[in-house]
Design a protein that fits this description.
The complex is a heterodimer.
Chain A lengths: L5 H29 L7 H28 L2 H30 L11 H19 L4
Chain B lengths: L1 E2 L1 H8 L3 H8 L3 H8 L7 H11 L3 H4 E2 L4 H5 L1
Helix pairs in contact in B: 2-3
The chains are: A mainly alpha, B mainly alpha.
């Protein structure tokens, strides 16, 4: 995908991100309020899970497209932050996995690795932009 | 890498945001280049040089002494 420049890339990212987030929130609220987990049929539970996940996958695509289209410095910062976020979460997954294998902890909802990744990515980006040297 | 980007920019009366808009990059990119935190790629270095009507070597200095390098 061609580099479009900082402003255009940001505009295109926001044009995709915010509608997807609105859909995501609407799905979350709708499924929480309208679907009874105890009585709902399996197909409806799966449909709700997929419906909530699709906009998030769209956000991941928007992030990928942003790194293709934005300027080189912004791309480098985002890629390094994504890398650092991924490494932190991979390390956390290994730790949690081994803690479970050794039966040091009980069940851990895998779901939370997703938000944890975005927190790690955001913090890495913040630290790099404010305190890092990028040469 | 040392550069004279800030001097050239202020001679034109441009802010970092103005220069960023002309180069189609973020203001943070301009700041990072001016402070030496980031070295631009060749295409961006050429774009900067063309914008100011200078050669790349007149704007960026990697500290290499050409005479020593030739030896």
């Amino acid at each position: 995908m061609a580099q479009l420049g900082f402003r255009t890339a940001n505009r295109r990212y926001n044009f995709l991100f915010w509608p997807l987030m609105i859909v995501y929130v609407a799905f979350i609220m709708g499924t929480t309020m309208l679907v009874d987990e105890e009585t709902a049929p399996l197909w409806l539970k799966v449909a709700c899970a997929v419906g909530v996940t699709v906009p998030l996958i769209g956000v991941l695509y928007a992030m990928r497209r942003l790194t293709d289209e934005t300027d080189e410095y912004t791309r480098m910062n985002h890629m390094k932050a994504m890398r650092d976020g991924g490494l932190i979460i991979a390390g956390a997954a290994f730790l949690i996995g081994f803690l479970q294998i050794f039966e040091a902890i009980g069940d851990f909802p895998v779901f939370w690795l997703g938000p944890a990744y975005f927190i790690a990515y955001g913090l890495s980006h913040l630290v790099r932009c404010n305190f890092g040297r990028t040469v | 890498m040392k550069n004279t980007l800030r001097i050239l920019r202020t001679e034109k009366g441009w802010s970092q945001a103005d220069l960023a808009d002309r180069l189609n990059v973020s203001r943070q990119s301009v700041n990072a280049i001016e402070t030496g935190k980031y070295d631009p790629s060749l295409p961006l270095a050429f774009a900067i040089a063309r914008l100011f009507g200078r050669s790349i070597e007149e704007i960026f200095d990697d500290g290499t002494d050409l005479a020593e390098a030739a030896e």
